[in-house]
Amino acid sequence: MSCSGVTPPFIPISSSKIQRETLSLLEIQTLSLQAFGERLGKPTAGPALLTSVGESEGRSLTRRFPQKSGMDSEHSLREAAKDLRCSIGLAYLFLYYLLQFCGHTWIFANMSARFLSFGCDALAGTFYFVGVMMCVCQLLSVLELFHIADGLEDSRLLPRLVQVIERNFLLYLIISQEEFQSKTIVCVLFYLWNMSDLLRYPYELLCLISTPSFSMLWARHTVSIPVYILSVIAEGISVLQALPYYEAQETYSDELKAPVSVYVHFPYLLMAYLPLLAAGSGVTVLILMKQRTQTFDSWNKKMKIS
């Protein structure tokens, strides 16, 4: 409504007129596109030119800005799977170290309590009271080789392999014999094994959850070396003490039929094991000394930086 109060007349517009005007506008746009194409030296129809220009622009934009949504999602899935694997590995290692620590603590406490209560009379019954738990702990230590091979544990494979072979060989082939279980060397050997493991497993536990103190670091990489050397000496003494028993009883001595008939005398294998034990323990001590030097050097650098 206008200000004068007079209503303007309604002018009807036919649909044919609207269609004619729309077609004329489309013709003007088509002619302008054709003229633009002739200037570029590429005469083509207007809609075809528009389509080709749109496709080329789309390809150039695709080359300039590739689709990152699929790549980003795949990368994020990989990162999530890696984080999940690390979390599961840390939880598994924590439970394993905790189980070993509890087992060796129980063995050490049981042996110490019996020794303080009964004195030297408790040495003869050491294997009877703690032998099963010691066998379980040493059998579980075989898993540490798979930890290192799989990358869950950052450690040298050779020292751990030598240690696992030494202990399980003595435990299942020599100490498991009833006639040998009451010897004093068995109690001494169990004490040294427990001291070595009680220095290692608490340190590994603290490395998973926090940074261990320097005293624990020093005990792990310094005190454990002479304890390991003493345990190797005790292992050699136990093998020498077991030789007369195997000579008399001929346990594990048998004749192999195939492919050639050969008589295997187990005491000879034990005597051949002694130089292998000395060589393997010597290499292990050298590796432990080198690892100790590297650990203390990294600790000193970290303290200087902080």
What does it look like?
β1 and β2 (262-264) form a beta hairpin. This protein is globular. It is built from ten helices and two strands. Residues 1-15 and 39-55 have low confidence and may be disordered. The longest helix has 50 residues, at 69-118. Strands 1-2 form a two-stranded antiparallel sheet. It is mostly helical and 306 residues long.
Topology:
Layout lengths: L14 H25 L6 H19 L4 H50 L7 H15 L2 H8 L6 H19 L2 H4 L2 H26 L4 H36 L4 E3 L5 E3 L1 H40 L1
Antiparallel strand pairs: 1-2
| Number of beta strands | 2
- Unreliable segments of 5+ consecutive residues: 1-15, 39-55
Q: Main sheet, how many strands, which sense, barrel?
A: 2 strands, antiparallel
Beta percentage is under 5%
Question: How would the global form be characterised?
Answer: globular
- End-to-end distance: 83 Å
The H-and-E topology, N to C, reads as HHHHHHHHHEEH
What's the helical proportion of residues? over 70%
Largest sheet strand order: 1-2
Output the number of helix runs.
10
Q: Radius of gyration, rounded?
A: 41 Å
Average pLDDT across residues? 79
Structural class: mainly alpha
In summary, what is this structure?
The chain has 306 residues and is mainly alpha-helical.
Descriptive terms for the model:
306 residues; mainly alpha; 10 helices; globular; disordered N terminus
